[in-house]
Amino acid sequence: MVGGEMLGWSDLHPVDALSAAGGAAAGALLAAALRPGDSVLVAGPHKLSLITDIASGVASVDVLVRSAPDAEEIAGLLDGTKGQVICGSLDRLTSDDVYDVVVALDGLDRLVGPDTANLTWSGALARLQTRLAPSGRLLLGAANPFGVERFLQPPISAALPRNEDWARDLDDTAPTGRTSLVSTLEAAGLDISRTYAVFPSLVEADVALASVDHLGAVTAARAIAKRNSGPTLMDPYRLVVDAAAAGLAVELAPAWYVVSGDLPDVLPATAVPAGAGVLLEEHLLAALKVDDQAVVRRTITEYVNWLVAQDHPTAAIAAPDNVILDGTSYRLFGDGDPVDAHGEALVVAHLARFARRSLEGGSRQPWPAGGDVRELTARLGSMAGITVTGELLPAPELVRPLGSAEQLATVARLAEELAEANARAILFEGLLSGIRRSRPYRVGHAVLNPARVIVRRARRMLRKVVR
Fold it and tell me: Which InterPro entries has this protein been placed in (predicted)?
């Protein structure tokens, strides 16, 4: 037991702070990086499942945590495992032990306590480096202070820091940005072999990607959208996809893993489907954006023909946002939410999902703004030769764009179309007024008006005779 432990605090079970680092990507990284004969130091708060998985697959494991309750809980789990649980801050660790692997996927911020003095980010890194064997491997996590969430959520704790954010030296800052992070690590003498972009956050690492493009962007976007399901400043899914299209998704990732050693490109390895292609939804939205209705009509028809030829388990999850288009062939992206319907009802349900998602994303459409899901679904169905009757359509619903930015863009588009409609109405009224004031119109009206009176009187006389 090392001094400087925090008796009344837990990083494993925090009340108002971040949870411990974990997630499927963290587990996959450890599985790829660790070897049975390794001695491992786990530095900082990590999910208990990660710690036990590490302990079961290596020769020995030491765990460093700053919280006394956390240390006791971890020690109970690792009873009988070769190694020790060390409670205290990194600067109080005075042993001379070195390790084959140092695991710090939570980063360096939570390796210090409120009584830690003058231990900057670089200083913490240097202390971890002294624990590495000459050919040792460091698995380091780092949060991105300018990641996609800066564009999605306002900082709700901007006025008052969390309980874990004790006062630190003003110079105690981590490198800002992936390039700066890697440069700092290399300048410190570390041989960095790979950097992963982590989504949706450092402590909830569902997926880690060496590159974020095409289908990888969809995987990252899904993770971000799932984490940010409430009101946001921008649509989370579209933000990540658009950032990837601009080549910025890695730079704007919520966090990074920086490691040494030869590791897989994608963590977990099955996170991104193999092969070429583009998500069908993205292909359709791109066509709508440029008003290419011919491409939309052809693609919808081909998609529906493919869909009806599939068995039900496949067709039930084959919505446009879960189907890859590769030339003229289609395949599933991954597991999706099944639709409990068959035949045309199933097709219409998938088209309705696409219509709803396009409205939620504030996507550009070649038809007048203000259309609802039912109207757009019927239009898409007609492209594939389906008469979408009322019982097939979804229940009426008011769909708003998910992000504030997309809502403002939709309002601007509606205002522009309304102004254009008003301008046309004024033009038509002016034309109509001019026609009514013209001589030919007045002459014709004078000639035809008596005739209309005679016709009306004749009809009344005829009705009386019939009676």
Answer: SAM-dependent_MTases_sf
CA distances from residue 64 to 11, 93, 129, 382 in whole angstroms, order as listed? 12, 9, 15, 63
Domain span at 149:
24-267
Q: How many residues does the chain have?
A: 467
Helix or strand or coil: residue 309? coil
Q: Judge whether 222 and 272 are in contact, CB under 8 Å.
A: no
End-to-end CA distance of the chain: 112
Residue at a domain's end among 209, 232, 267: 267
Residue that terminates a domain, selected from 384, 403, 421: 384
pLDDT (tens digit, 9 = 90+) per residue, 333-389? 998 889 999 999 999 999 999 999 998 888 877 776 557 888 899 999 999 999 888
Encoded tokens for 32: 């790829």
Strand runs labelled E in 294-406: 323-326, 329-332
The reported pTM is 0.85
DSSP state of 81: S
Give the angle 212-103-247 at the CA atoms, nearest 5°. Answer: 15
Count of CB atoms situated within 10 Å of the CB of 298: 13
